[in-house]
Design goal:
Elements: H1 4-29, H2 44-53, E1 59-61, H3 67-72, H4 77-84, H5 118-132, E2 138-143, H6 150-161, E3 166-172, E4 175-176, E5 179-180, H7 181-184, H8 192-195, E6 200-205, H9 209-224, E7 230-235, H10 253-261, H11 264-275, H12 280-302, H13 309-318
Parallel strand pairs: 1-2, 2-3, 3-7, 6-7
Antiparallel strand pairs: 4-5
Helix pairs in contact: 1-2, 1-11, 1-12, 2-9, 4-12, 5-6
The structure holds thiamine diphosphate (TPP).
Thiamine diphosphate binds at residues 64-65, 113-116, 143-146, 149, 173, 175-177, 238, 242.
């Protein structure tokens, strides 16, 4: 049985991600964010559950849909909004933007615009830890589309054959842009890919934050005991289009409605209220605090200067 504080912490993380994404969409519409923006609506339980089970020394590697991972790992909201709005105060000095946020202070080795590219990065990080004899695992977030890329197979095979401390979290949100999973593979139960490489692999409900937390905690234990990598297929649903400008009209309304009724925040709230006796006011207080933090982060970012060309050139010259 988990404490109310612990569960409330998970809810707080998920609510923060939801509010962050909502504000980012708004900032995008106002022209404050340029380029692409891939919201994480509906997948919040995965980032929150995984990161709650990791230890401070562990690494994460993120994806193009990566704001939630960065937040759940403890990323600073002010520096994150500054990064996404292209400001000097951003965690990558405003030069990375939404798809290239990295935050080494929290062990976040970075988001990536190349689908599947996080897998070999994470295998490399796990291999480095293994060679140096460090007690660390590398947890890599990846996606259903990435499972059809060559690097996914190569990375998993290498991690398995060296028994690396590597956890692959496959967020199966059932779409790669507009292609539903059933059309891109003859085996939509993606955890089976891991079994073929001798990797301990399981499929879980990615909208249930406790299921995600428990399975990741087990995976961390297994990895640190030397039993090699673990693949967790977390089944979820992308609540909306592929990116901020995609209305997602190809997504069947009934399916979207079904998954909205199983919204991860709603499930977490139900657990808190019905099972551990948290009260509505306490949750409302958490939400109000997060809303305030978010207002401050946006205000901070929008009042921060853009990166200077001179500073960039000076740094480049020093290399
Ligand atoms: C190697 C590679 N191929 C294609 C693309 C173009 N692309 C960007 S996102 C995406 C779909 C990704 O779907 P999925 O991997 O399931 O992740 P999701 O967007 O659902 O989180 C594609 C094909 C890319 N960025 N990188």
């Amino acid at each position: 049985m988990h404490s109310t504080e612990f569960l409330a912490g998970l809810y707080r993380t998920m609510y923060t991600i939801r509010v962050f994404e909502t504000r980012c969409v708004k900032l995008y519409r106002q022209g404050a964010i340029r380029g692409y923006l891939h919201p994480y609506f509906g997948q919040e339980a995965i980032a929150a559950g995984v990161c709650a089970a990791l230890r401070p020394q562990d690494y994460i590697v993120s994806t193009h849909r990566g704001h939630g991972h960065c937040i759940a790992r403890g990323g600073d909201l002010k520096r994150m909004v500054a990064e996404i709005t292209g400001r000097q105060a951003g965690c990558c000095k405003g030069r990375g933007g939404s798809m290239h946020i990295a935050d080494l202070e929290t062990g976040n080795l970075g988001a990536n615009g190349i689908v599947g590219a996080g897998v070999p990065i994470g295998v490399g990080a796990a291999m480095g830890a293994w060679i140096r004899g460090e007690d660390r695992v590398a947890a890599v977030f990846t996606s259903d589309g990435a499972a059809n890329n060559g690097v996914f197979a190569e990375g998993l095979n290498l991690a398995a054959s060296l028994r690396l401390p590597f956890i692959l979290i496959l967020e199966n949100n059932q779409y790669a842009v507009s292609t539903p999973i059933e059309q891109s593979t003859a085996e939509p139960e993606l955890f089976r890919r891991g079994l073929g490489y001798g990797v301990l692999s399981e499929r879980i409900d990615g909208n249930d934050v406790l299921a995600v937390y428990r399975k990741t905690a087990e995976a961390v234990r297994a990895c640190t005991q030397g039993s090699g990598p673990v693949l967790i297929e977390a089944v979820t649903y992308r609540q909306g289009g592929h990116h901020v400008n995609d209305p997602g009209q190809y997504m069947p309304k009934e399916r979207l409605e079904y998954y909205r009724s199983r919204d991860p925040l709603r499930i977490a709230k139900e657990i808190l209220l019905a099972r551990v006796g948290a009260n509505e006011e306490a949750l409302a207080r958490i939400e109000a605090e997060v809303d305030r933090e978010m207002d401050e982060a946006v205000d901070f970012a929008l009042h921060s200067p853009e990166p200077s060309v001179e500073a960039f050139l000076a740094e480049a010259a020093a290399y």
